[in-house]
Amino acid sequence: xxQYSADLTxxxxxxxxxxxxxxEPGLVxxxxxxGFCGAVIRCEAGTVTLEDRFGKHRVFxxxxxxxxxxxxxxxxxxxSSGPARPTRTASGSVAVPGARARVARAGRVYVEGRHDAExxxxxxxxxxxxxxxxxxxxxxxxxxxxxxESFAPGPDARLGVLVDHLVPxxxxxxxxxxxTSEHALVVGHPYIDIWEAVKPASVGIEAWPRVPRxxxxxxxxxxxxxxxxxxxxxxxxxxxDSVRSYKDLEPQLLGRVEELIDFVTAPS
Length: 268
Prior knowledge:
Elements: E1 20-22, E2 28-31, E3 36-44, E4 47-51, E5 57-61, E6 67-69, E7 72-77, E8 108-111, H1 114-131, E9 134-137, H2 144-151, E10 159-163, H3 171-179, E11 184-188, H4 200-203, H5 217-225, H6 232-241, H7 251-265
Parallel strand pairs: 1-7, 8-9, 8-10, 10-11
Antiparallel strand pairs: 2-3, 3-4, 4-5, 6-7
């Protein structure tokens, strides 16, 4: 006699299995019940501690189907024994444990200013070291033609440049058009300064303020936000510290930096 299962639940009504993901430090997840989103900083027996972008900590139980990872339901599990490593870099790329930095390529990526370079390093630093891409910064976009001429980009030495406020018709746009070639790519974002490329919510403000013409933009921002600083460098440290990963940056910047990295590392 054939034996039948006592479970008469249709297959489409049965709970679907979800992947189990080790709660490695640095993994960014969301607890859907509270909406709390943060990076794993500690995983103990039965619990996981998350830290959000503002430094706030919350402890949650390790329950089945208890978290969202990039919008998908997952079950967090305690990592296996051994040194824990982040599963993703700050740029969102899959981390490569133990990977050595590649010998620097002949190609380069230039950005417009020290703050731009620090932000790129914080988010894309791990990727750039693996690819052997060196990032340098311009003192000003006016220096770009002489830098490109001196660099002499070619098939094995491509040059990528990120420019602030690259809007058609502006001085920056005309300079970029003049130096762009098969082996030199100039891209930009629409923001007056790299500060604006950080999402306001990540910094803890509603929006970046409008600064009247004729007023130094960074100084005007600090005054409008009521930030009491002796110089704008202090404000930048505050902004940079609020950036944990690519999720804290505007898409208009993310796409341009990824484009430059792909351009410089493309096979000759």
